[in-house]
Amino acid sequence: MYFASDNAGPAHPAIMQAMADANTGYALPYGADTIMDDVRAQIRDTFEAPNAAVYLVATGTAANSLALSCVCQPFETIFCSPVAHIHEDECNAPEFFSGGAKLTLVGQGDKMTPQTLRTAIANEETRGVHGPKRGPVSITQLTERGSAYSVQELTDLCAVAKGFGLPVHLDGARFGNAMMALGCTPAEMTWKAGVDVVSFGGTKNGCVGVEALILFDPDKAMEFELRRKRGAHLFSKHRYLSAQMQSYLADDLWQKNASQANANCARLVAGLRDTETVSFMHEPQANMIFCSFPRAAHQRLHDAGAMYYVWSGTLEGDDPNEMLEARLVCDWSISDALIDQFVDLVRGNTP
Amino acid sequence: MYFASDNAGPAHPAIMQAMADANTGYALPYGADTIMDDVRAQIRDTFEAPNAAVYLVATGTAANSLALSCVCQPFETIFCSPVAHIHEDECNAPEFFSGGAKLTLVGQGDKMTPQTLRTAIANEETRGVHGPKRGPVSITQLTERGSAYSVQELTDLCAVAKGFGLPVHLDGARFGNAMMALGCTPAEMTWKAGVDVVSFGGTKNGCVGVEALILFDPDKAMEFELRRKRGAHLFSKHRYLSAQMQSYLADDLWQKNASQANANCARLVAGLRDTETVSFMHEPQANMIFCSFPRAAHQRLHDAGAMYYVWSGTLEGDDPNEMLEARLVCDWSISDALIDQFVDLVRGNTP
Amino acid sequence: MYFASDNAGPAHPAIMQAMADANTGYALPYGADTIMDDVRAQIRDTFEAPNAAVYLVATGTAANSLALSCVCQPFETIFCSPVAHIHEDECNAPEFFSGGAKLTLVGQGDKMTPQTLRTAIANEETRGVHGPKRGPVSITQLTERGSAYSVQELTDLCAVAKGFGLPVHLDGARFGNAMMALGCTPAEMTWKAGVDVVSFGGTKNGCVGVEALILFDPDKAMEFELRRKRGAHLFSKHRYLSAQMQSYLADDLWQKNASQANANCARLVAGLRDTETVSFMHEPQANMIFCSFPRAAHQRLHDAGAMYYVWSGTLEGDDPNEMLEARLVCDWSISDALIDQFVDLVRGNTP
Amino acid sequence: MYFASDNAGPAHPAIMQAMADANTGYALPYGADTIMDDVRAQIRDTFEAPNAAVYLVATGTAANSLALSCVCQPFETIFCSPVAHIHEDECNAPEFFSGGAKLTLVGQGDKMTPQTLRTAIANEETRGVHGPKRGPVSITQLTERGSAYSVQELTDLCAVAKGFGLPVHLDGARFGNAMMALGCTPAEMTWKAGVDVVSFGGTKNGCVGVEALILFDPDKAMEFELRRKRGAHLFSKHRYLSAQMQSYLADDLWQKNASQANANCARLVAGLRDTETVSFMHEPQANMIFCSFPRAAHQRLHDAGAMYYVWSGTLEGDDPNEMLEARLVCDWSISDALIDQFVDLVRGNTP
């Protein structure tokens, strides 16, 4: 019963098979492999972006930090949510890769709004050269609280950024989950809404470790390549990244995995909704939820070996009825049986 | 006929199998997987270093840059060969990860000597705070010209460094090839000689993409972990790095692959030695050689699709007898038939 | 009528005279001048800190950034007020000099409290290597809103930092103003309270451009020297920095200037207090105040050439009675006549 | 008898007077002072460059590092002489300000030639993204060995840089000394020859501490301003920098000081030329020379308190006839009597 994150389940068998299939003979290193040519073509097609520059790296933090470093000067500030992965979970990687840029936290909670974003941007550059210059806006989709910005919300945020002449980065570590929740196209969720550069996640959605970085404006392509190498993120045996991404895109595997993860989470939500002691902190939309239920239920789960983050409060405590918040994430692979077992434990039934 | 590098052949089947075997159920992310526990134990055992801190990253540049950043302040300078990978082939990654340290090039050619190293170190810090402070010494083993430092040479270089109180890093992208050429133990080639931190390469020697970073003094372990995360080199699905390294160490696969690559190269050398038009620039020792032969031979190879670097001169030219230098690298997988075909083409025989 | 800042008035004549006196014959460069020996001795004596390392730089941002870079790793975060100069007014200099550290904003308003500081520190390092490590606490004294932390408040903040094993930096750009307001000794306001490193400001208090950096623990002295040189803040003709600081310390000039500036501000406050339309945002303590009064008064001041920051709202507007906030700073040199003229204009009297 | 550097003599009285004259009333901070308007106009006029962006900083290292950081990406390499100040005497400041760029050392000795520069540039970017990209060329004028590039030499070097599309920086810490030695105009020695950005030194030539940074193409002006602030090199009481530079430019004081320093050095050279035991390492051109003479003469100088760098060898030694090299620098202020005394001591006469 692993609900801690979508980075701990197995890779999809098709991904493993693709890596095995790629393991024959010689292939040009450093991204010159022929599989990468196909990946590039597929991504351009998927995103309806025939001129996009497309690159692969192995971690989400690399995708985000390198992307931001291409659109941010060291004397600028990046606008993001206070709970953005780039702020909370990358150990200063954006500051490192950008050469010392600042992050300006926008509003409260996981979602920026046009109003909070406009206020935050307007507040910068009121101090001449004394404060940093305004830099890129970084949007996390899914947010770190499991919410999806609607296409309209994305469009409105991008419009604010564009009004100030600022580039927009989308951290799409859970791109597929968000898109399947919204029912839109990749283009609608990105460049058509005003996004300039996307971290298109594979790792959390069934891959071994691969993320695509898509620059809709290819002017920064060579700079990205140099920063990738300098950041030690250019793989010599690149074909194994390419093979993962090729397989991930083929037959819409990425969409199927994301749909499955979302469906798994919906089953979990449905089970918990029937449980009167559970209350949800955010409206469930995709594959990550935050909800609270009594300590006694947490203790039953813990004793049964369920793994997830107790988000607020601590398992230890005297009051069995105290409500503690849980973060629960479903990946594509978790079984109905485990989900139902989890729900039963929350309810207090013997599983 | 791919002799351009040892990073373009396939991974060893055992490595692929290990990744496939690891692809089952849930595994704790970010290096907390149980396979990593075994890897750590194996490496400590292999290196006779029970207290060593051991980490995995996916690229050699990451291993080198992160290692150096843990033992180098930004106001220091790193001593290395003028042809060191960290100087010529990492697009300023050491400068980036160290926060702006300098590289001081020692002597001429691929090998530092105690004399050239002592002179270079002595020349620094003669200018008070105006020049950089002396920082770590970085040794490449194999060198970028295919030579192996003997254990005595390593010991002597480390003694010079220690005499100035400086730490020593070993770039072991081709660690196995060097060790099998020398016939020594891992400990003899590292900490017993005076090395403090090692990049222990897997990628060029049959893995998909994994390098171990070994800190014999674990005091810097937490700093390394933080710098790895900040450099975006901490893998969430870390088990696939662990599985590669576990399999690489098991049954001495790494030594067998390295021996095979060296043997392949020895076959190539033997064939070329019988060819009167070939002269060697360095004494062949492991799996990489530099030799020169007439342009006509290069053209035959080129026409037959052989891939390798023409190291000096250009394929185009009027004089068929002009000697052009080639860099030739054998990986573990290249077949006797292809090696012989290459030799035949140099000789001018119809293959 | 210049109330915009204390960085626009003239230097004290004694400072200018000291620079002129120093302008004779040869003096060893780069801080080896004999005047610096006296400065070092005087500062150690003034701060009752016989082992302190003492250095001079020419700007407050240099003092702060270099100090922080000596006590902060690039994978750490600095704790400070949301209105701290290092956050709002140094264009990412702390991020630059630290190599990419983050700043964590503590609480609301200009003053950190033990409670808000403890909460902020506790919240970091709850995410393993994913978030930054806890780094130094930086306290601004005077705050950027003109308040002075009491010695007890400083002691309590330092105790929180020490409880977590963190170093404490004091940004004393207005050190003298704060100390004279509190009536304590330099030692009481620094190391006796738990401060480890101080930026001791001269520029805003009658000097041309000089700040002392005092490290009570001299272990980092050589690192500071190297970082100062690397930051291009080591002056060749250092004697002119030394001469300023020597004269600033002699006969307690720094205390006299600060007292005079505070007294000037007290006169301004007294005048404004008698003006019923003025309300103060913070209790005036030293030489900087924030207060609000009607737009009509602002317009009279503006027309008369008074210079200061309209801190909230804009001068242009229809409603003459709308209250707009002003930031008013007095330096040591401003005359009673100009202060009285300013007050008269607020009152609406013809000056 | 101070011949160690031109940074240890007094400032010219006119410079001190200008600072004193500026010390009256209020002046807008941070470069908005009215004196700076005049400085900007004078420099544009002096350099026949009506559109140039002009800024002031207080140290030569700041001028060089900030200038280079505006024309160099962190994944590039800077081309300079192996004895360039930016390489040997700035403790990694160019690496720091550029965010980790490399320095590629061109040829041997103090002067780059078109041939050595072309070779060095051509050698870079032969390795795709694995090596750094070509960045700016930095020329030191005077060189660190006291030589002046002729206008033709500068033009030829710039032509090589331009042929590769690279910007050119001139480190003019001793700009005046070089120009007066050549007898050319400021424009001829800079933009007319192909220089893009100049560090125009004042400190070594009679100022207290001020250098002008001149960007002939003002496109980078705002970036320079932000980098200056972020580097902590923007002075609040900027008027004292402006006043120095205004006075330095007025009545060609900078040219007079430089001529005087060169004349002082010529007197020294003439005296030493008459001394048969002295041999010159470089042809004396301006105010810095390198020459060798017997240890006995060095010891006489040392005993008499003369200060200068023994450039090779050590004062201590048995052989009174061993030739040791000296670096001797004359500033504008050194008297004929001291020069003659120095020469007499070399000759062995009782002074």
Per-chain topology:
The structure is a homotetramer of 351-residue chains.
Chain A: H1 13-22, H2 34-46, E1 53-57, H3 60-70, E2 76-80, H4 85-88, H5 93-98, E3 102-105, H6 114-123, E4 133-140, H7 151-163, E5 168-172, H8 175-182, E6 197-201, E7 211-215, H9 221-230, H10 239-249, H11 253-273, E8 279-280, E9 288-294, H12 295-303, E10 309-312, E11 323-329, H13 336-347
Parallel strand pairs in A: 2-3, 2-4, 4-5, 5-6
Antiparallel strand pairs in A: 1-7, 6-7, 8-9, 9-11, 10-11
Structure in a nutshell:
With 351 residues, chain A is of the alpha/beta class. Chain A contains 13 helices and eleven strands. Chain A folds into two domains: 13-251, Aspartate Aminotransferase, domain 2 (3-Layer(aba) Sandwich), CATH 3.40.640; 254-347, Alpha-Beta Complex (Aspartate Aminotransferase, domain 1).
Question: In words, what does this structure look like?
Answer:
Four copies of one chain form a homotetramer. Chain A is α/β, with parallel strands linked by helices and 351 residues long. In chain A, helix 2 runs parallel beside helix 10, helix 6 (114-123) runs parallel beside helix 7 and helix 11 (253-273) packs parallel to helix 13 (336-347). Helix content of chain A is 39%, strand content 16%. Chain A has helices at residues 13-22, 34-46, 60-70, 85-88, 93-98, 114-123, 151-163, 175-182, 221-230, 239-249, 253-273, 295-303, 336-347; strands at residues 53-57, 76-80, 102-105, 133-140, 168-172, 197-201, 211-215, 279-280, 288-294, 309-312, 323-329. Chain A has two domains: 13-251, Aspartate Aminotransferase, domain 2, CATH 3.40.640; 254-347, Aspartate Aminotransferase, domain 1. In chain A, helix 8 links the parallel strand 5 (168-172) and strand 6 (197-201). The first copy, chain A, is globular, with a radius of gyration of 21 Å. Chain A contains 13 helices and eleven strands. At the A-B interface, helix 1, helix 3, helix 5 and helix 9 of A face helix 1, helix 3, helix 5 and helix 9 of B.
